[in-house]
Amino acid sequence: MAEEVANVQVPPDEELNKKQYYGITEVAAMFGVNASLLRYWESAFGMQLRKNRKGDRFFTPQDIRTVQLIHDLLRRRKFTIDGARDFLRKNKGADQRYELIQSLQRVRKFLVELKAQL
């Protein structure tokens, strides 16, 4: 599981916002999971994804950030599905706090790399 969390390849916000929609296979590749797991999370967490007439799911950059938070809760922090659902329901600002934590971790990584170069 720890390796799975480390292998998440979500691009930075600037690159993520270049496209308006991402297909389910692209998002599954970002997180290293099956598309069926993303479909399950969609139903379990009540996500409202855009679908075409054929039924293909499309993720916006905000949807991808939500999936990233769900992935973090379930894989890294070891929440159950019910526990993660309750956490998201009770903590309405959880996604903003998670994004803040992610940006601080990127700054920390940059500073550690800068220190190593000195």
Mean pLDDT reading: 85
Helicity range: 55-70%
Report low-confidence residues grouped into runs of 5 or more: none
Please trace the helix and strand order, writing H or E for each element.
HHEHHEEHHH
**CATH domain class of the domain at 1-78:** Mainly Alpha
Rg over C-alpha atoms, rounded to the nearest angstrom? 15 Å
Strand line-up of the largest beta sheet: 1-3-2
Task: Determine the strand fraction and express it as a percent band.
Answer: 5-15%
By DSSP, the count of extended strands is 3
Distance between the termini: 34 Å
The chain-level structural class is mainly alpha
CATH names the topology of the domain at 1-78 as Multidrug-efflux Transporter Regulator, Chain: A, Domain 2
Give the count of helical stretches. 7
Major sheet: 3 strands, antiparallel
- Architecture of the domain at 1-78, according to CATH? Orthogonal Bundle
Characterize the overall form.
globular
InterPro entries: DNA-bd_dom_put_sf (IPR009061), MerR-type_HTH_dom (IPR000551), MerR_fam (IPR047057)
Domain HTH merR-type: 21-90
GO molecular function, one term: DNA binding
Keywords: DNA-binding
